[in-house]
Design goal:
Layout (H helix, E strand, L loop, with lengths): L9 E6 L2 E5 L1 H14 L7 H28 L6 E5 L2 E5 L6 H28 L7 H21 L7 H14 L1 H27 L4 H20 L1
Parallel strand pairs: 2-3
Antiparallel strand pairs: 1-2, 3-4
Bound molecules: zinc ion.
Length: 226
């Protein structure tokens, strides 16, 4: 995707030379989640802010992982866009199928590595010397990184696991059939996942159903290009 098309939105800053943009939808959704945390009252305000920061920071860290892989594979310089229900790393050159797999895995790898390092440090650091909010943030960073990055490895397009599946299927089945199999497998996994979620939570997590709707729309788009 041409990274020049996606420089709209608020520029948050630059990390390792990668410009970070956010559009309003991300800020609204994460703000809503932070408010949800705040239902515990004003005493929870600090927690709400930390919650907001950890979610945005985790997504940025994940995208920086992708962007570093893109740079090392000489696919161009990336622009990171935070929008809707997540982030995207946009760069100029289309990767080969093999490079695409490396780029897709780099985001989850960065997130899981961070969670691992912080978990390891937590085993040797005496938490009682840290302020309670720092202890809360530390645990939250580990949890959010685990949840976001493990979930991202599900074989559902456009999640990273779905991207890996798409490139792997295209290697073996060709472009068109590879895309079709990716959509079919992803939608089946999504339906099974949604069914399990319904069985256990009974449609209570509105946010999760927003994600499912978004994923279904992305798959419909991909199917139309196949
Ligand atoms: Zn990713």
């Amino acid at each position: 995707m041409n990274n020049q098309e996606h420089t709209r939105g608020v520029r948050l800053g630059t990390i390792l030379g990668f410009p970070i943009f956010a559009d309003a939808t991300l800020l609204i959704i994460v703000g809503f989640l932070a408010l949800y945390e705040l239902r515990g009252g004003l005493a929870a305000f600090g927690h709400g802010l930390v919650f907001f920061g950890v979610i945005v920071g985790t997504i940025v860290w994940h995208e920086v992982g992708h962007a570093i892989a893109v740079r090392r594979l000489k696919l161009g310089e990336s622009v990171i866009v935070l929008s809707g229900l997540g982030g995207r790393t946009l760069y100029r050159n289309s990767p080969t199928l093999k490079a695409g797999i490396v780029v897709a895995l780099a985001g989850p790898f960065a997130g899981l590595a961070l969670a691992g390092v912080l978990w390891g440090l937590a085993q040797v650091i005496d938490a009682s010397v840290l302020p309670p909010l720092a202890v809360y943030a530390w645990g939250l960073i580990i949890t959010v990184n685990l949840v976001i990055n493990v979930a991202n490895l599900a074989p559902i397009y456009p999640l990273d696991g779905g991207q890996v599946m798409r490139y792997a299927m295209q290697m073996n089945l060709g472009v068109r059939k590879g895309l079709q199999v990716t959509v079919i497998v992803g939608v089946v996994v999504l339906c099974v996942g949604a069914g399990l979620l319904y069985a256990f939570s009974g449609f209570q997590e509105l946010f999760v159903w927003l994600i499912i709707g978004f994923v279904a729309a992305e798959n419909w788009q991909l199917w139309r290009t196949a």
